[in-house]
Specification:
The protein is mainly alpha-helical and 160 residues long. It has one domain. Helices cover 72% and strands 0% of the residues. Helix 1 runs antiparallel to helix 2 (37-55) and helix 2 runs parallel beside helix 6. The longest helix has 40 residues, at 117-156. The radius of gyration is 21 Å and the shape is elongated. The two termini are 18 Å apart.
Length: 160
């Protein structure tokens, strides 16, 4: 995959970072607004897809460290399960950090009380989805590239 025109790359430079910011906002505020960890993680992973289309595969693979996405995936998964197990004296996924509605109103937390572990689990899911979908995009690109190289060798009858 070759890079696209300078216009597309400039547009990518201007707008791609907004995907990360917008996706992070959706993840962080997902417990009190529409959206959440999965939706925000998918938006953040779209950032990598946009870079792949605009700059091409060779340039993107020289920039990307796959270990970061693996780390996001593993950290998000472990954090989610750890938060689920921490509520075990009562039940699995017990919301042990939540503030009761009466206390939240008395202390000035507003109409919506803090959601406790739900917000933390939402962030963990966002990290997991962003890392996992980014790895899927990279794996699919590498698979398409390998398929094209094998197809070229079969048609030409010789190795590159």
């Amino acid at each position: 995959m070759r890079p696209l025109s300078i216009v597309v790359r400039t547009g990518c430079d201007l707008f791609a970072w907004f995907l990360v910011i917008f996706g992070s906002t959706i993840i962080i505020h997902g417990d009190v607004t529409p959206g959440g960890g999965f939706q925000g993680g998918a938006i953040v992973a779209t950032f990598l897809s946009l870079l792949l289309v605009a700059y091409g595969g060779k340039k993107l693979l020289s920039w990307v460290n796959v270990g970061i996405f693996n780390g996001m995936l593993v950290f998000g998964l472990l954090a989610f399960f750890l938060l689920g197990f921490l509520g075990f004296p009562h039940s699995f996924f017990f919301n042990f950090l939540a503030v009761p509605h009466e206390i939240a109103q008395a202390t000035g937390h507003g109409v919506i009380p803090p959601s406790g572990t739900i917000a933390l689990m939402d962030i963990a899911v966002g990290l997991e989805v962003a890392g996992g979908l980014s790895l899927i995009v990279l794996s699919m690109f590498k698979g398409v590239r390998l398929f094209r190289e094998e197809h070229f060798e079969e048609e030409s009858g010789h190795d590159r």
